[in-house]
Amino acid sequence: MDDRRRLLQQKGCIVWITGLSGSGKSTVAFAMDRILNSMAKVSYVLDGDKIREGLCKDLGFSAEDRRENIRRVGETAALFADAGLIAVVSFISPYKRDRDIVRELVPTGNFIEVFMDVPLEVCEERDAKGLYKLARQGVIKAFTGIDDPYEKPVNPEIVIKAVNEHGACYSPDEMARIIIHHLSEKGFLSDRVDGWNLPQNPGFVSRQDPLVGPNPPELRSYPGEAEAGVSSKAGLSRSGETSKFYGRGPDRNFATELASAGEMSGTPPTSAWSGQQAWMDAL
Ligand SMILES: Nc1ncnc2c1ncn2[C@@H]1O[C@H](COP(=O)(O)OS(=O)(=O)O)[C@@H](OP(=O)(O)O)[C@H]1O
Ligand SMILES: Nc1ncnc2c1ncn2[C@@H]1O[C@H](COP(=O)(O)OP(=O)(O)O)[C@@H](O)[C@H]1O
Q1: Which residues of 181-196 are buried (b: 16+ CB within 10 A; e: fewer)?
Q2: What are the boundaries of the region Disordered (predicted)?
């Protein structure tokens, strides 16, 4: 397990995004995937729409089928996490018990529940697929939020609201950054345990984490997060607190790091790549 963490320079986990249809689950999941990949972090999105075309195409939307849907996806995500990937899962997953069962499949702390706290009226107004209209007309039965229940998470790691305190919508990247910031704070984007480097393979030079930087890390704050209107168990932006993260210098901040990661999309970041190059040179 430590070998894999050292190899990938990250710790596997499940980011479980739950919320009503139209709450933005897929949007934030794919934005996360894109940003993480541009940071040379390995993630994979398991999205409801796609999985229901394959792995779960035999399932419908009865309570029993939804439970089986979440069970299969949960087991798959747990395997990905065990392999060291950041498994990003975007399913309505309306039942608390089913989500809690998945939480138990991975080591404590490695399940990050993200609640898209978007009111039904907003999702219905968006109605990107026209399904709410059909549900209201009775054409689609047992539609979540209309005539089928959605059980809100009780104590999710992260809550993303529809709008910030100024009433503005979040962009996909803003929502993704909130989650990536949490992953960084919890050490999922690093090979370090408790802030210290693991022993290195001979010839393997650890690459710098674009967010976390070298040891010993210095505590820094990202002012923008305080206005993000989100909360997390990590204390991220809860009740307007200034959030903290570990960075590498006064001239860099979280937003800058992510922005530059975005700009590098498709090109391996130099600092991230140097370790792999050194390792290959040593062969
Ligand atoms: N009855 C009913 N209720 C809810 N959703 C429905 C239903 N019928 C079809 N759809 C479409 O299926 C998508 C949800 O699939 P999920 O696998 O995420 O659902 S669940 O977790 O098993 O409840 C959901 O996609 P998203 O909008 O991406 O959430 C809908 O487009
Ligand atoms: N933060 C946001 N603000 C405004 N619209 C959004 C936001 N996030 C997503 N959307 C839009 O809402 C619709 C549903 O988003 P989607 O990600 O497909 O939701 P879900 O996967 O939860 O069904 C899409 O048209 C998307 O562009």
Answers
A1: bbbbbbbbbbbbeeee
A2: 204-283
CA–CA separation, 188 vs 159, rounded Å?
Answer: 19
Supply the residue whose CA is at minimum distance from atom 24 of ligand 1.
Answer: 21
> How many alpha carbons fall within 13 Å on the CB side of residue 141?
3
Catalytic residue, candidates 43, 93, 206, 231: 93
Instruction: Reply yes or no on whether 93 is catalytic.
Output: yes
- Per residue in 140-180, pLDDT (tens digit) is 999 999 999 999 999 999 999 999 878 999 999 999 999 99
Side-chain half-sphere exposure of 230, counting CA atoms within 13 A? 27
214 neighbors 207 (Cβ within 8 angstroms): no
189: Cβ–Cβ under 8 A, 6 or more apart, which residues? 9, 10, 11, 39, 41, 180, 183, 209, 211, 212
With a CB cutoff of 8 Å and minimum separation 6, the contacts of 197 are 191, 206, 215
- The CA-to-CA distance between both ends of the chain, in Å, stands at 23
Contact 210, 272 (CB under 8 A): yes
The superfamily CATH assigns to domain 8-185 is P-loop containing nucleotide triphosphate hydrolases (3.40.50.300)
Q: What is the pLDDT of residues 35-79, one digit of tens each?
A: 999 999 999 999 998 999 999 999 999 999 999 999 999 999 999
> 216 preceded by cis ω (within 30°)?
yes
State the DSSP code for 48. Answer: H
Task: Report the mean per-residue pLDDT for the chain.
Answer: 77
CA nearest to 147, candidates 157, 137, 156, 155:
137
